[in-house]
Write a structure and sequence with these properties.
TIM Barrel; binds flavin mononucleotide; single chain; 11 strands; about 45% helix; 8-stranded parallel beta sheet; about 350 residues; alpha/beta
Length: about 350
């Protein structure tokens, strides 16, 4: 299943494992996917520079194949201190339920993007992908000089055009089915909920760099369909969430394997930014919150201790269970088996379609 894009990256099938920050995208998962011929990826957005360096080296101990590292382009939020304090006080009720102490008000903490980028440059990672915006031009230039392949995330055609103009080598088209945070950086995330089937061909018509289809792709049928739409490859997240190599907490994996296509919703109550996940009691409750939900990354920092304690307690009701709409097709197969099965299914689907065309 090679094409110009896979040859450029040095991979043997057009399957990228989605970078999944917050635990699922471990070095084990990335290396397993890369060793199977796809492109594994670390979701490094929340990691400190030291954690990123360690994870990159761990991937390299496990594979000599190409892999990617993903970061979050930083953004500012102007939430008033009073709103942050009110939210923090409100969250104490969940903390009490989990048996953790009330958290003091702490300013939002997100690792320095510049310091994270510096590690990627020093380590010379084969692929750098990003979401939530466009990095400064000098950062893109520095990556290019280092020979790194650059992938930006778009949820609309306009975002894809801006990314191409900024110099990316490929655009990941994130359809509304996708699990996790929305990559939207122009306008309102609610206006950028374009399904993968609609987004990919419209974007492929308007940019000259390769398009990577992402959102709701779970098997070879999705891969074959994406190639037919004009994508050069697919990026699959939810499909790998319940694999043994994924670092998602047990309760998250359990919920992925037992939920259907109608189980998810888009919410900003966990992080202050729109993201798709399996509906939980926390999501339901917080919809009735009378105050202002602080923006990203403040709300994300405020809810972190709750999400982590809930995962420790194996209580999915207060966890963020990011997942896409393809849920019913998720399996607990090993990552390499998911890659191989997806390729075999796509080849079969394309073969069947070719016969159909022959009969026409
Ligand atoms: C648990 C989870 C975490 C994610 N974290 C990131 C991330 O750190 N960076 C990123 O660019 N995309 C992230 N995404 C979005 C994926 O890149 C991709 O758009 C999505 O997984 C595709 O949809 P699918 O889950 O239906 O395959 C995440 C998705 C999930 C499910």
């Amino acid at each position: 299943m090679e094409n110009a894009f896979t040859r450029r990256l040095g991979i043997s099938c057009p399957i990228l494992q989605a970078p999944m920050a917050g635990g699922p995208a471990t070095p084990e998962l990335a290396a397993a996917v890369s060793n199977a011929g796809g492109l594994g990826s670390l979701g490094a957005g929340y990691w400190t520079p030291e954690q990123i360096r360690d994870a990159i080296r761990e991937v390299r101990r496990r594979t000599d194949r190409p892999f990617g590292v993903n970061l979050f382009v930083p953004e500012r939020t102007d939430t008033a201190d009073e709103a942050v304090a009110a939210m923090n006080a409100h969250l104490n009720h969940y903390r009490a339920r989990l048996g953790i102490g009330p958290a003091p008000f702490t300013p939002a903490h997100a690792p320095s993007f510049e310091a994270q980028l510096q590690v990627l440059l020093e380590e010379g990672v084969p692929v750098f992908s990003f979401t939530f915006g466009i990095p400064p031009a000098d950062a893109i230039q520095a990556m290019k000089r280092r020979g790194t392949f650059i992938v930006g995330t778009a949820t609309t055609v306009e975002e894809g055009i801006r990314l191409e103009a900024a110099g990316v080598d490929a655009v990941a088209a994130q359809g509304s089915e996708a699990g996790g945070h929305r990559g939207t950086f122009l306008g309102d995330a609610g206006d950028a909920l374009i399904g993968t089937l609609a987004l990919v061909p419209q974007l492929a018509d308007r940019v000259s760099v390769p398009v990577i289809a992402s959102g709701g792709i779970m098997d070879g049928r999705g891969l074959a369909a994406s190639l037919a739409l004009g994508a050069s490859a697919v990026q699959m997240g939810t499909a790998f969430l319940a694999s043994p190599e994924s670092g998602a907490p047990a309760a998250h994996k359990r919920m992925v394997l037992s939920s259907g296509e109608d189980a998810t919703a888009i919410t900003h109550v966990y992080s202050g930014k729109a993201a798709r996940g399996i509906r939980t009691e926390f999501m339901q409750d917080m919809q009735a919150y009378p105050g202002t939900i602080p923006g990203y990354p403040i709300q994300n920092a405020l809810t972190r201790d709750i999400r982590q304690a809930a995962a420790q307690a194996d209580d999915p009701s207060l966890m963020s269970l990011w997942a896409g709409q393809g849920l019913r097709l998720a399996t607990a197969q090993a990552a390499a088996d998911i890659v191989r099965r997806t390729v075999a299914e796509a080849q079969a689907a394309i073969g069947n379609l070719s016969k159909l065309a022959g009969q026409g």
